[in-house]
Amino acid sequence: MIRFTTVYLPVLFLLFIGSGCAALIYEIVWFQLLQLVIGSSSISLGILLGTFMGGMCLGSLLLPRIVPLREHPLRVYAFLELGIGACGVLILAGMPLVGGAYTAWAGTGIASIITRAIAAGVCLVPPTMLMGATLPAISRWVRATPDGIAWLGFFYGGNIAGGVLGSLLAGFYLLRIYDVTAATFAAVAVNIAVGSLALVLSSAASYAAPDTESAGPDGRPAAPGGRAVYLAIALSGLTALSAEVIWTRVLSLLFGGTVYTFAMILAVFLVGLGIGSTVASGFTRGAASPRRALGWCQLLVCGAFAWAAYQLNVSLPYWPINPSIATTPWLTFQLDLVRCLWVVLPGAILWGASFPLALASLASSDQDAARLAGGVYAANTVGAIAGSMMTSFVLIPWIGTERTQQVMVIISAVAALLMLEPSYAAAPAARTTAGEAVPVVAGRWRAAATVMLALAMVAAGLLARSIPPIPGLLVAYGRYAATRVGQADVIYVGEGINASVAVSELSNGVRNYHNAGKVQASSEPQDMRLQRMLGHLTTLVPGRPRTVLVIGCGAGVTAGAVSIDPAVEHQIIAEIEPLVPRVVSTYFAQHNFDVVRNPKVEVRIDDARHFVETTRERFDAITSDPLDPWVKGAAMLYTREFFEMAKRHLNPGGVVTLFVQLYESNTEAVKSEIGTFLEAFPNGIVFGNTNEGKGYDLVLLGQVEPTKIDVDAVQAKLQRPEYSAVAQSLREIGMSSAVDLFATYAGRKPDLQAWLKDAQINHDKNLRLQYLAGLALNLYQADAIYTDMLRYVSKMPDDLFVAHDDTRRRLYSEILRLQGK
User: Fold this and answer.
1) Is the model's pLDDT at 423 over the cut of 80?
2) Fewer Cβ neighbours under 10 Å: the N or C end of the chain?
3) For residue 691, what are the β-bridge partners?
4) Rounded Cα distance, 333 and 328, in Å
5) Nearest to 234 by CA among 424, 411, 39
């Protein structure tokens, strides 16, 4: 055994790197696939994360109880890896079936939650159980001696190192360049390579099962005080995942909530875990009291929370940084990486060190190492599930990130006390310079230890009190916070279940709604013009817009413009964050016609894609004003498949309208948005919203049938008394007639075909848009993009607009003027 350990254990370390790499690729891919099915709301994400980690917990617990000791550990490990690869292929192929079954059975309320959990469980539990079983499986190759426990820690660290590689590989390359199919098969290839090599090693190395084990059938170790260690490592997992949720939320404000930001934060967190695990694994070989070291780790975590909170809320937002001056996004990524390491690394190292220290605290030489590793891993995972769920669903919406971190500091202090108090209660022997052991007086030592622990708990309490609140300026302006100091009063800040939102007011009375660390809607003239255009085009183009779906509430201006059309009888607003319609929209009541209190308006709190996919309702019009496409998850509302889904929910003659921003974007992202929309709606129309004569943003309008717009009929409608509110709303944005509204025409598919020839179509399987847009969130090229697009629009739309000759001449003249021709 000793010879094998010396020769082969480093090879197993490399295998665990590959195993971790594949696991993180799968995690990112499966979450992306399943979010398309069950939605991307906090409930859906919580179900996905809980199912994923729950499966790993079950796998770590069940393997030592199901697989006999006589089975060769390497052969078991090899079949687990090959099984994970097979599950990856099955999930990829079976996802359409899961999606179809889910859509058929999905409901609302508790029924919806149960159905989501079943869908996630069917897909995630089998492979994640296999993933969770890999560490206990290979643990049987080592003994629960100091050297063996150290190697278990190294394996855990190697697995985490592979996770770093996998998260970066998936986020920055495989999914950016290819799609979920390519990423899945890359992970499958790694599984096959790891499993095959493990089989080769199993045939080359003999294995003799241990004769005895001191753990009982329930797997509890013989080491005294074991339950306290399990509780401590569970609390460590709880605080670790709670911190990851909080830090990811705040850092995504600071960096911009792109897929690259989330991949980077995950990678840095894993780097810290890997460093901590590796260092602590070496330490355990000669440690006199790993239990005491585990306790001090938890106590130091209190300081790590205070450090991170100070950096995130007091220091980093005010670093003199303007990301818009970077010449390439890759330079911004370098800066973000340094800031992320600065915040996350100290705590992550301590949590990484906790796992091998817990193993060493429980180990005994004649124990089944698989039961030991599985039990500790399961306890840590259960705590992690509790931490992520409790923080996301309860603590942040209830008491905010400041108080949540204070709670976590106290929990870390409790975990430290569990380990340190029994450790210092015993009286260890002191040693003279001659090396002779001299017993310490137990009473004096206990008194000194009590004073030291009391001081440590006081220090933890002071650290908890030092946690600062999240600044409103950061919630409002995110990565541009340092450049906006003193420019606006933040009059509301809310930390919701899905997002942190804010409302600010400028000195001139303009109000802004902030989400994802930027202005999403405002009462600025150019924004009011866009929001009103979007709402009025939605109801004035179709013949009878009785039922309308509005995707995204925001400031409520678009929804309000829809609601004042007298033809609209029932309107649904689908909004993912409850704070937005309940609180934010009320700050814009004078601009949005107090839409959320309108009796014909119904607010549905749900991910918009999930709502459209599962509702049985049909609509005369659907208008979509989602978050920026660079925000992780928003691209799901811009895919070809989503537009086809929206078409299936249209009544005959119905329309779909979509907001497309030109600012904070690039040509490739805008082409992807327009090209994808026009593939689903070949009869689609582009309308432009300019600011001081320069391109600013767009409205896309699509119908299944060929679109005909009777300009004179719309004008006649606006002159009716019942449409006076609509006419006044248009006048407030500088449009005194139907001609002014439709003169914003900026092209159709035949005009733009040459410009769109290299457009990358955004599909569910690649979500290409979020990767394109994620490289452009700091760019301001709106007018250049708009001007370039208009170069291809040379013909007047004679077959689109129906009008008398005089109206047509005025319309065409105004179109040419607005296009600068």
Assistant:
1) no
2) C
3) 694
4) 9
5) 411
Q: Are the beta carbons of 113 and 48 closer than 8 angstroms?
A: no
Distance CA 784, CA 510 (A): 27
CA distance 367 to 348: 29
**Dist CA 54 CA 125 (whole Å):** 8
Helix (H, G, I), strand (E, B) or coil at 439: strand
Return the residue matching tokens 């590989």: 169
User: pLDDT of 566-576, one tens digit each?
Assistant: 999 999 999 99
Q: What pLDDT sits at residue 247?
A: 97
Confidence band for 363, pLDDT divided at 50, 70 and 90: confident
pLDDT class of 211 with cuts at 50, 70, 90: low
User: Counting every residue, how long is the chain?
Assistant: 821
Instruction: Label residue 593 left, alpha or beta by phi (over 0 means left) and psi (-120 to 50 means alpha).
Output: left
- Cβ-based burial of 171 (10 A; exposed 0-12, middle 13-18, buried ≥19): buried
The pLDDT tens digits for 71-98 are 999 999 999 999 999 999 999 999 999 9
Give the Å distances, CA to CA, from 362 to 215, 278, 326, 371, 377: 11, 18, 51, 11, 12
Rounded Cα gap, residues 653 and 448, in angstroms: 82
Q: What is the C-alpha separation between 345 and 322, in angstroms, rounded?
A: 24
What one-character DSSP code corresponds to residue 246?
Answer: H
Rounded CA-CA distance 210/805 in Å is 95
Amino acid at 108: T
* C-beta atoms surrounding 565 within 10 Å: 24
pLDDT digits 0-9 by tens, 245-293: 999 999 999 999 999 999 999 999 999 999 999 999 888 776 678 999 9
In angstroms, the CA 576 to CA 801 distance is: 37
List, for residues 647-659, the tens digit of each pLDDT value: 999 999 999 999 9
CA distance 388 to 50: 8
This prediction has a pTM of: 0.93
Q: What distance in Å separates the CA atoms of residue 532 and residue 615, rounded to the nearest whole number?
A: 27
Output the DSSP codes for 160-171.
HHHHHHHHHHII
Residue 524 buriedness (CB in 10 A; 0-12 / 13-18 / 19+): middle
Q: Please give the domain boundaries of the chain with CATH numbers for all domains.
A: 1-206 (1.20.1250), 225-429+443-470 (1.20.1250), 482-515 (no CATH), 523-709+748-799 (3.40.50.150)
CB atoms closer than 10 angstroms to residue 686: 23
Helix axes 329-362, 226-255, angle to 10 degrees: 180
The DSSP code for 483 is G
Task: Give the type of residue at 735.
Answer: M
> What does the DSSP assignment read for 489-546?
EEEEEEE-SS-EEEEEE-TTS-EEEEETTEEEEESSHHHHHHHHHHHHHHHHSSS---
Over the range 88-101, which residues count as b (16 or more CB within 10 Å of their CB) and which as e?
beebbeebeebbeb
**Phi, psi for 76 (deg, rounded to 5):** -60, -45
Check residues 714 and 223 and name the one with the higher pLDDT.
714
**Which pLDDT belongs to residue 370?**
84
The residue with tokens 């409002």 is: 476
Q: Nearest Cα to 332, choosing from 729, 779, 760, 815? A: 779
What does the block give as tokens for 666?
Answer: 């690039």
| Cα dihedral value 250, 251, 256, 257, nearest 10 | -70
Tokens linked to 344? 């996350």
Termini Cα distance of the chain: 83
Measured between alpha carbons, how far is 139 from 363 in angstroms, rounded to an integer?
A: 12
Q: Which long-range contacts (CB under 8 A, 24 or more apart) does 501-504 make?
A: 501/475, 501/577, 501/579, 501/580, 501/584, 502/472, 502/475, 502/476, 503/584, 503/587, 504/472, 504/476
Say if residues 819 and 364 touch (Cβ distance below 8 Å): no
